[in-house]
Amino acid sequence: MDVIGIDLSGPCNAADTAVAAFRSNGRRLVLQERLVGADDAAIAALIRQAMPDGDPVVGLDAPLSYNDGGGDRPADRLLRARAVAAGLLPGSIMPPTLTRMAYLTLRGITVARIVATIGGVRARVVEVHPGAACVLRGAPVEIVRALKSSAAARHELLRWLEGEGLEGIGGGPDPGDHFVAACAAALAAWKWSLGDPAWIHPADPPWHPYDMAC
Fold first, then answer.
1. H/E element holding 30?
2. Cα–Cα distances in Å, from 3 out to 22, 38, 43, 83, 208?
3. Kindly report the CA angle at 62 between 56 and 68, in degrees rounded to 5?
4. Taking 80 as the threshold, does the pLDDT of residue 120 lie above it?
5. pLDDT score, position 119
6. Is the peptide bond before 206 cis (omega within 30 degrees of 0)?
7. Rg, the chain, Cα only
8. How far apart are the first and last CA of the chain?
9. I need a labelling partner for 38 at 20 to 30 A (CA). Which of 12, 21, 106, 150 fits?
10. pLDDT of residue 135
11. DSSP state at residue 164
12. What backbone phi and psi angles, to 5 degrees, belong to 143?
């Protein structure tokens, strides 16, 4: 099984999109490819590459639906409460139609459609939240909150992710926050695929067609 974590950015800012593609190896995920600066075509190519080997699991860090009339979806409200209780800031989960989120939501919905178009019923898509996925699984909240500002925190979080079963992600220079988030997205998607999410809000089609999981 291939597991692909994607830390998505808006459609005009593909330079901040990172993809971490893993191959399942028993109880571990082994990194196969990393991409930083991935546009939609690069993401589609990775999905096509994974398709012949099985049913890829794709964790997308972006809203994959929005609430009719705007504001929080039920899943956003519930996850924010759990994340804040665990020490994350309320702004770490924002409504999909908020001005600064709308373009990310637009791209998230589009990339989910691309994955479905390429993979048909074989590819499995889940909406994930990397920060919450780490904290709710026991990662130190202070390093998760420092992910964007501290290279030391990024390296420490990669070591924590290695302890959770991700291989081949450590070492080298500063990996950047987007790659670390993509790895955390893969962790959340992998655990979801195994029926072991730390938190889940089931899909509610047609309005919210994908599970949200951490």
1. strand 28-36
2. 5, 17, 13, 24, 22
3. 115
4. no
5. 64
6. yes
7. 16
8. 19
9. 150
10. 98
11. T
12. -80, -30
Is-contact 39 19, C-beta < 8 A?
Answer: no
Q: Confidence band (pLDDT; 50, 70, 90) for 54?
A: confident
Strand order of the β-sheet with 124-128 is 166-167, 28-36, 18-25, 2-7, 57-61, 124-128, 212-213, 200-201
Residue reference for tokens 């089609």:
205
Token output for 205: 């089609």
d(CA 14, CA 40): 8
- Domain-wise residue ranges, the chain: 2-213
User: Residues 6 or more apart from 152 whose CB is under 8 A from it?
Assistant: none
The answer to whether 60 and 108 are in contact (CB under 8 A) is: yes
